[in-house]
Every structure is written in structure tokens, then in C-alpha cells.
Amino acid sequence: METQTIRETDITLHERVAFGATCEVYKASWRSPNGEELKVAAKKIPIRGDTELTEQLNIEVNILSRVNHRNVIKYYGHAVTPTHVIIVTEFASKGSLFDYLKKQKSLPAKLLRKWAVEAARGIQHLKNLQIVHRDIKSPNFLITEDNTLKVCDFGISKDAEATQSTQSDKGTMSWLAPEVYMEGKLSPKADVYSLGIVLWELCTCEKPFKGMMPQHVMFKVSSERYRPEISTDCPLQLKMLIEECWQQDRRKRPGIDEVVSRLERFGVYLCILFFDVDLTCNVLIFFLYFMFIIFFMTPPIHHVRSLLDCNWSMICWVHLIVT
Ligand SMILES: Nc1ncnc2c1ncn2[C@@H]1O[C@H](COP(=O)(O)OP(=O)(O)O)[C@@H](O)[C@H]1O
Ligand SMILES: [Mg+2]
Predict the structure, then answer these.
(1) Residues with CB under 6 A from ligand 1
(2) Staple 252 to which of 11, 99, 148, 247, CB 3.0 to 4.6 Å?
(3) What is the tens place of the pLDDT at every residue in 189-239?
(4) Closest CA to 98 of 146, 153, 44
(5) Over the chain, what is the mean pLDDT?
């Protein structure tokens, strides 16, 4: 797919929703080619004649134009002005996952499960396109109006063939795999490590390595294999997966396909352990219904049985189908 250049005059900026590291993000409207007025996000990045920045922006829009998945932010196009590049994407009205988690004590089990799977699926889609995100962290996951989690910010992403990382493009320390800053080694397994930290955030609603300086995190993680503490409330299977994802040796980390299928599989288990309200209600209703059948429906069944004089299991089946 081609990167899509759009006219600056078709974009109307409204309120600013965030300051990024090198940009400002606005809620905006964009008049699309078919005349439709869309609610979008506009990421406004100043170009200061910096060739590395311009090159990276090209990579960012190039990657955005290739992705197409419900767990990756949707790209509409970009406008180039003499002073700025404005990247236009779908608007995620509930902001970043990081900001959302800051306001929570814990997540309902259903939401934890949903977002864990969605985060992993977004990264899986990137891996399928041979893209290493390299800056997977909760501030780079966005939540849309319908509570869907989407990965964003391809500011330092690279094609998977690029196996070396440079000084200037290192992601945020708390989420970064140690081999990236120690040896400059880059692979899809670096994203799996960062996902492990994001899964931990979903479980705890806390900031990883809170209160620690980046250099301290770097030293402790790489030399002492230090990791955030996983609370005892965390279901065992999820705890094990998180620990595998943030293994020091990247070869011991599971691939993203395995992470997705394991998260999908133990979703129900998670719900039960966290006493998910919906699920508990369903189980209770089913139980009451079962008791109702046992106590009130059994005599008629006997009655029908004697009338028809047919086989007991067949009557049970008919009864089940009818009810
Ligand atoms: N599409 C969007 N909808 C809503 N908020 C967004 C959107 N894109 C970015 N943001 C907000 O802006 C912040 C920074 O955006 P990001 O693309 O990560 O820029 P940076 O490269 O500076 O980190 C995000 O953490 C989020 O809070
Ligand atoms: Mg970002």
C-alpha cells in the first residue's frame, strides 16, 4: 500500500490530547476524499531539518500504511508542511493504556483477558509483516471508544531484517529487553520481552520499576536479572507466561504466536480465578436451572416415560432439547 499524502487544509485541529517525546497529538477532524468528516487524531511532528528524523518519519508512515489489523491503530494519511509533518490516524477516545491504568486499582478479569489478548495480537500482526516495533509499552497502546486496545507509535520501528539497534532509537528503559541496550541486538523477541512487562502492568495497574532511575533499571535488569514483582493474585498460568516473556535469554522466550494462543486458551481460567461477575452469574444461573429441572421436572418425565414406554436416555435428550 502507498503512503497517503493528504492536504493540510483538510485537517482541523481541536484540543491537544498529549505531548509526545517529539510531537504534539491533537483531537482533530479530517475531510476525507469522499467528503466525509471524520474524527481523527493528528500527530504533529516538527521537522527541524533533521535528516535522521525525516528518515524515521518516512519509516513510520511507511509502516503505518502497511498495517491493517483491529489491534493496530488505523492510518489515514499524512500531511507535509514546511515546518511539520502531521500524521492522521483514527482517534482513540479513551487515551493510552498507561494513563488508563494509572487511574485503576485493578482490572476486571474480563478486561484484563481481553486486553492481554489484543495487545499480543497487535504485536503478532506486526511480526507477520516482518516489523519489530521496538517501543512496546503501555503509553504506546491506545484504547478506543469501544474498549479495543490498539498498538500505536511506530516512531522507532524497523523492518525485522534490521538486526542492529542504534543509540538514538532505543525504546523506553523499563520496557526494553536487555539485549537491545547491552548488545544492540534486535529481534521480534525484544517485543515479546516488552509485552511481558505490559502484561505485568495489566495485572498490577502499576508502573514498572516505579521510582527507579533509567540507569538503575538498566543495571539491575541486565546484571542482576531483576524484574518487577508479580503479585500473588496473578493467576499461575499468566505469571508463568510473563516470566517466560521476560527471560534474559531471548531464545528462551516464547514466540508471539505461542503467546497469543496461550493467552486465548487460558482466558476462561483467568475469569474464574478473578471471580468475574458475569461468569459467576452465568454459573449460578446454570446451577439454579439445573436444580429446577431435578426437583420439579422429574415427575413429569417419569410420567411421560411410563406413557410412552420408551428409553430413559431418549426422554432425557428430548427434554434437554425442548427446554
Ligand atoms: N490516535 C490517538 N488517539 C488518541 N490519543 C493518541 C493517539 N495517538 C497518540 N495519542 C496520545 O499521544 C501520546 C503520544 O503519542 P505517540 O504516537 O506515542 O508519540 P511519541 O512518539 O511522542 O511517543 C500517546 O501516549 C497517547 O496518549
Ligand atoms: Mg509513544
Answers:
(1) 17-18, 20-23, 25, 41, 43, 73, 89, 91-92, 95-96, 139-140, 142, 152-153, 155
(2) 247
(3) 999 999 999 999 999 999 999 999 999 999 999 999 999 999 988 989 999
(4) 153
(5) 86
DSSP code per residue over 192-220: HHHHHHHHHHHHH-S-TTTT--HHHHHHH
Which has more pLDDT, 153 or 161? 153
CA of 25 to the centre of ligand 1 (A): 6
| Predicted model pTM | 0.82
Residue 2: inside a domain, yes or no?
A: no
133, 85: one domain = no
Which grid coordinates are listed for 115? Answer: 486486553
Out of 67, 90, 113, a domain closes at 90
State which residues form the domain around 37: 8-90
Q: Which tens digit of pLDDT belongs to each residue from 243-260?
A: 999 999 999 999 999 999
Query: How many angstroms separate the first and last alpha carbons of the chain?
Result: 53
CA of 63 to the centre of ligand 2 (A): 15
191 and 289, same domain (yes or no): no
Annotation says 135 is catalytic: yes
CA 254 – ligand 2 centroid, Å:
25
